[in-house]
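WARN retry 2 of 3 for item q-0093 after timeout on previous attempt; input resubmitted unchanged.
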Amino acid sequence: MEGGENENGGKKRGCGCSKQDFLPEESFQSCRSYLNALCNTKSRLRDRLLARSADHMELHEIRGRSQHEMKKRLNWWDIIWFGIGAVMGSGIFVLTGEAARNHSGPAVVVSYLISGMAALLSVLCYTEFCVELPVAGGSFTYLRVELGDFVAYIAAGNILFEYVVAGASVARSWTSYLATLFNHDPNSFRFHASSFPEDYSHLDPIAAVVSLLICIAACMSTKGSSRFNSIASIVHLLVLLFILIVGLTKANPQHFSNFAPNGIRGILKASSILFFAYVGFDGVATLGEEVKNPGRDIPIGLIGSMLIIILLYCLLSATLILIQPYYQIDVNAPFTLAFQAIGLKWAKYIVALGALKGMTTVLLANILGQARYFTHIGRTHMAPPFLATINEKTRTPVNATVVMTLVNSIVGFFTSLDVLANLLSLTTLLIFSLVALALLVRRYYVGGETTSSNRNKLILFLMLIIGSSIATAVYWAIGKNGWIGYAVTVPIWFIATLGLNLMVKEAKKPKSWGVPLVPWLPSASFASNVFIMASVDGASYVRFGIWTLLLLLYYVFIALHASYDAAKETTDTTSAATATCLEDGGASQLHH
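OK item q-0093 returned
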């Protein structure tokens, strides 16, 4: 951990951490002050529950709490490759089989296109926020500014949990694919601890070592990480190009004859599964603080990378169908066994190499995103503020990177892939939905400027958009094949969005780059994400509820009081600075 001086100017010893790094706020200085804070929980909840931050606060005062600034070294080229590296992991090699064989058939190409368009809508929403608020917090910052502290805290707490699960899962998958390259069973590369429960008995030191190596790269330099990511992503693309070329030499167009065996429902069900092959770009948005020219580089990087990924996914899925009939595709290893079926057994090594390269860049993007999320949460004091520290030499968030890597490594070392796979969550979709909603609030509501009439109409139309989107998703989830439900819910969504467009005055225009066709595209993004959430299994909702309950307990007993004190201190400092400026101005006028 990084050392330095404490608030009183004294040097820290040892690892550089003290109580003041974890709980420096006034509420935690003594038992009496903490009990007093708990007694004021109700009033503090009223103060902070819907409290919204401001752009200038996030860009200056909050960011200034890190003591040092991150270096602005990234450009649009770096962001494109980070986008490709963050999204294109092993998903294409795993999810395509289940989607094509069990749901969409050859129409898996259409399913990839639909889910890609849904992901692109979310990318557009993220891009506008990232251009306007280029800070490390990503969606946490966007939600904090538009929907308030509490919503941002719950969302960020859940997505950090999912980052840990995803990081540990990818690290263990890295070991599995490495074993494939050497013709070994994955567990032969792990140690078996018979005294541990079965799901935690295969210890994976390779997963931990890979995570630690990625951590070192992420701590040393963001630009260096970008160069490594670019090289690894280029190798990955060359592997995918190989799959396309070799696969097309064995193509049989007749495999597309029964294009959509399960109809539109099968296509949409496959789309909901394949959407998870597109997630990861939200972590790239946390790099906004390190981009040289956010107004130019972020739109080109984020949107450009997503368009490339959509094209590649559609081409790869089409190639798979041309190689092998959809009903013969293996669910677990579709590309590997498809090449074996046409006599190219050696191709499985190329596929495994591509997956390894992809998972390496996903791990890198994962830890970069995790650390920057945690850094900005630490700046707000909703997490221990020592996590907000930026290393003076490397200008990277070393503390947050090391802490999150240790958590990832411990989980990945002990926990089996089966357990981790069952923890796949709806959190990502929830965050995407909230960011789309926050963008609508940002465009149509400005405190102190928007009239009461426009505010009330905005609330009404947003409630209708939310309600109709949820109703459509629920109707789909319960398996109704009729059209009556959609004939009610879809027109309500359309009328509500149209009403928002025609009857509520837009309160804020983006300064440099903005989402086109507002409110239509953000509203469609919200509806599509909620629709896909309907396909998430019930166990994920239970896990989401349990974890959220734990977050609530931490919020009530720790985060609420820490963030309240930090906000109060910032307000007092700002007021004092304003008063000083006024006094200096008055003295100057008297002098003249």
